[in-house]
Amino acid sequence: MRRFLVFLLLAVFFAASCSLRKKPGGQDYYDQAELMFEQRNFNNAIENYQHLIDQFPFSPHAENAELKIALSYYQLQEYAEAINALNDFQRMHPTNKDLPMAAYYLAMAYYDQIHRPDQDQSNTENALQQFEILERRFPESPFAQLAHDRIQVCREVLARNELFIGDYYYKRANFRATESRMAELMQKYPDTPVAPEALYKLGVTLQKEGKKYSAAQAFAAVKRHYPDTKYAALADKEVKKLKQPIDNEEDPLRLVLAEAGFGPAEEQGPRVRVRQREKGAAATPATPAAPEPAKVTAAAEAAYGPDGLPILDRPQPKAPSTIAAAATAGPATLRSIRLASSNPPLSVIFDMSGPVTFEKHLESSQDTSTLTVKLLKTAPDAKLQRHLVFARSIFKDSDIKSEAGDITVTVNTVPVSRFAIIPLQEPPRLLVTFTPLNKDLGDTAGHGM
Question: Do 207 and 239 form a contact (C-beta atoms < 8 A)?
Answer without folding.
Answer: no
